Amino acid sequence: MSFKFFDKLSQDFSELLNDKKEYNVVIEVDQEENKKCFTAHSVVLRYRSPYFDKELENATTNENHTKIIIKPKISAQIFKIILKYIYSGIVDNTDTKTIYELMVNANELELKELSRKLESYLIEYKAPWLRTHFSLIYHSIFNSNEFKSLKKFYDDFIVEYPTLIFESEDFTSIQETALISILKRDDLKVEEIKIWDYIIKWGIAQNPTLPTNLQKWSNENFKALKTILQQCLPLIRYFHIPGKDIWKNVKPYKKILEEQLWDDLTQYFMFPNQPVKSLVLPARIISTPELPSRNISTPEFPFSTSPNQKHNSLPTTTSNDDGNYMNIRQGNTQSLRMKQLPPPPYEQATPRTSQQVTSQLQSIGGGNTINKVQSNTYPNPLQNTNLPPSQLQPQNHPIFNNNFYVTGRIPILPSQQHQQQLMQQQHQQQLMRQHQHQEQLMQQQQQYQEQLMQRQQHQRHSKKISPSSLNNNQQQELNQCQIQPNQPVHQQQYLKSQSLHPHQISSQHSQKNDHNRVQFLDDGTPVQFYVKTLCDYKAGPDEISFTTGDIIPVIKVQEDGWWIGEVLCDSGKVRGLFPSNYTEIFKD
After folding, report:
1. What's the pLDDT tens digit per position in 299-327?
2. What spans are recorded as compositionally biased (Polar residues) (predicted)?
3. CATH number of 1-92: 3.40.50.300, 3.30.710.10, 1.10.1130.10, 3.40.50.2300?
4. E strand or H helix that includes residue 27
């Protein structure tokens, strides 16, 4: 049997870091204006970092026999965190940019454990920030042999959503080597003419002296742009650009192209079957159409950040590191309809049709549950005549169902006519809630009138009773009715007069109230119904986690199968998306 006291050991070594008597190493970090010196112990540095082990062998020694190590490229803030980690093994929580800089510097100092842990943390929890700062991060890790997980993260992101990179605000600051690596890919899902436009935009940004008006460009201006783009231009697939786009977008810059290439392009569109002398690159492989373009700075919902999942839901970014559920509650669900459901929890799970959902909901609360799901809530893409023919073909999928999107694939966006139908349904549901609220008020008023009639009846009954035959409590009750006729009559007295048991009255009222009961969350949000989870689920951003058997109140039902609910976790109540095919309707 062994005992481990790592906490105490970490605490003692942290105190050793503050010991200014026995140190024998001084480390100077940061630039001149922010330069700062840290003291350390060579024996600790040697065994904690292979980098410092090699540096201390060649470090210079001052008159006090103290070794000096200079690291001007590491900021004082970052090195303070690193030194604390070396001595205590503790890294406190900080902002995302600091975590990224800490990861890069930890890798430089060969602190592999820290660097890899921070890399995994960024991918799993800070993926929106990584996508927003693509240009900053990608070129810094591009030539490195480390950060393999980050490279795979960005490779998948580039393949699936290159437009978000090209249209980002900092695209023009990306390094040429990183840009060339992107252009060499055959699987970019973006039109070739758009790639040409992005390259021209990047090249012009590298030379701010170029005139903004193309009509005023001189031959020297075109030569300058050609020099900047000399490594990028050969990677454009010119012969796969439509002729009208060549004439409109490429022809104004034909002076930066080789003369032979322009002649071959002209010949190709006039005589497509004639051979050309220029190198013809193959067309890029576009397996699926590119999603609608978005400005990467627009706050929306980040897609899945799991390092083991393919990021194939609609990517958006947010300027805040924390998830923001308010966008969901404000009705901004257009982007959510492209979010894919995860695979079913087990093979036996079968998708639920809209009729099944409706029948299950009708069995809750005697068929009067608020906001029941109608049978036409989930559109059948095979019956939507407004879609193009390519989208009307059925797709084979092990759990595909024509009536309900719990299939694990991207659903087709509804047509404008269907969106209007959804708006009308939401309006009708709102009117239904208002009508039910009015009915509740009328029921309360009716109950008050019944109580008033009961008081009057009790008063008439009490007048027939002889005061001498009453005990003290009955006498007080009679006096109360005579003095304060508007006060509620004691329930037991009324029940005795009516020969009813208290349980009979309470059960009658509970049946009336439960029949039309409307449940609300703490902030007043109505609950449509409840579901019971079938398995455990680990959430991504804007999602909620749950375990098997949890009961989740459903706030909103969406067409793509991602519903909105609320769960209770350690940090409090959290709202977000969850896959409906991991749940079943819960009958209370």
Report:
1. 333 333 333 343 333 333 333 443 333 33
2. 296-337, 350-388, 494-510
3. 3.30.710.10
4. strand 25-29
